[in-house]
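Colleagues,

Please find the record for the two-part complex below.
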Amino acid sequence: MTEKNIQVLLARRPEGQVQTSDFKIVETPLPDIADGQLLVRNHYLSLDPYMRGRMSAAKSYAQSVNIGEVMVGGTVGQVVASRHAGFKVGDHVVGFLGWQLYGVSDGTALIRIDTSGIPLSAYLGVMGMPGATAYVGLMDIGQPKPGETVVVSAASGAVGSVVGQIAKIKGCRAVGIAGGPDKCTYVVKELGFDACIDYKQGRLAEDLAKAAPKGIDVYFENVGGPIFDTVLTRMNPFGRIPLCGLISQYNAIEPYGLKNVGSLLINRIKLQGFIVSDHLVRWPEAFEDIGQWLKEGRIKYRESIAQGIENAPAAFIGLLAGKNFGKQLVKLI
Amino acid sequence: MTEKNIQVLLARRPEGQVQTSDFKIVETPLPDIADGQLLVRNHYLSLDPYMRGRMSAAKSYAQSVNIGEVMVGGTVGQVVASRHAGFKVGDHVVGFLGWQLYGVSDGTALIRIDTSGIPLSAYLGVMGMPGATAYVGLMDIGQPKPGETVVVSAASGAVGSVVGQIAKIKGCRAVGIAGGPDKCTYVVKELGFDACIDYKQGRLAEDLAKAAPKGIDVYFENVGGPIFDTVLTRMNPFGRIPLCGLISQYNAIEPYGLKNVGSLLINRIKLQGFIVSDHLVRWPEAFEDIGQWLKEGRIKYRESIAQGIENAPAAFIGLLAGKNFGKQLVKLI
């Protein structure tokens, strides 16, 4: 057990591309805990695209991280000291303790988890925020009907991979969009999508016409930019677009101009931006279903694991560039 | 009674701006009617932005007008000959008999109207398709709550003027966007909006900040383009955007690129494209409410009336350029 805490702080706000020098890694003493608090040794840190927004001062749905503060992030770990009645030493917990080895909590938003059947890290992926995001966005906003075609971008990622697998379970045609042949092979062969388009081949419109010959009823959007624009040309009347992310735009200094807005009107499309934390009431049902599908082998997942907290910044930069393959984690122990 | 029919045909598909030479005006014999048909002398023709889409071959929600066919359009008129059991000579009717003095109908989509309390022309405006559009878009998609701020573009137009007045009736702050000081004065002084911004002044962002100091909860979109982009920067969390039209784009050869798509995500906005004919089930309630508000003097309207069928093309071109003031009609009698 390390006697020191290691933390990754936001050193400055990035302009355009995030750089490792936007972060600062510091060693600090282990924090003391007061009555009602507990200390958690984090085992895994989750890296997620939303963190890019928290690095900016721009208005967003959540508070920015201040310069000099520990970067925010989801974590799983184990309680190592407790003066909180609800948690005891040895408990496994999932929460938002940030980019650091140890975190102090008063129990707020900290959840005790059962790791007997499900690996600890899965609580940051399919059984965590990304899994709930896929479930709520697809089921509640996308409302897929059997026989419809569901397209999802960033299809090999933590959210997209679950979206397509749920679409299949619900009787839809699932088409992924991903970057590179390896990801596409994985999406089709391992995850069981009907098709996956490698957007890096530069033929997205033609490939979409082939992969979604009856048009697109639900487009689960994670990326934005020119991919979004091209998908809009293939939407069916009364299509739905759960707008979950715009990762292609997060580093952009000048945002992409979306041209095919007319498709939203002509096709009477419902587009809804959403943040999964607005839908906490739906999480229990999401995890009940996903947990069941995991046990039945109907949902699979993959993790990209960076080793050591000092590698978190580089792994995060890689995530924004699509270098991860499945859920991006940092192993902290 | 004219013994000849005069019709406006689509002569060719416009490229960019519509021109009068895209139309052809012809004189034809009065049509005979068969059993089950009736002949209507049209009194007013409605000119509406959607007609621009029908002139194009591009995929849209409705069939294009073929070259050489009579332009489609809503009309009100009077039955002058009938071999249809449901209509007799002298009945006033509203329907879609197109850009012509006389139209034959088998009764499909033709509705007998009561002109005792409401002027005939109103059935092409507040008590017709534009009124239903305003009602359905605002009430069903916009779902305004008392105290919220509703912004509507093309605010002096047939749809926009009703949107803002309903917003006021529902206890909202109503802010219009229109082109020019005369329209803005009308929107505030006569229609009773709380504010109206003249976008031609080129300070839309600043003026919106002043006119909607608590942000925008509902944006009823009729125009698209840079106005849409600017409004997106002022949307509140959980805002709604009924997407009714994109008139600024209909003549565009290269569509405007919408930059602030990120606002839809960050603010978890629900945007829904809609066409009022998909919501026929809602029309009776719309007209019951609007009819009541008209009688109570709570809804006002204005008409721009072009004289004579031969002036329909120029009036339509003016409509696309925002030269009308209120509902654009052509008087045919």
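The two ends of chain B are 9 Å apart (CA to CA).

Comments are welcome before we finalize the supplementary table.
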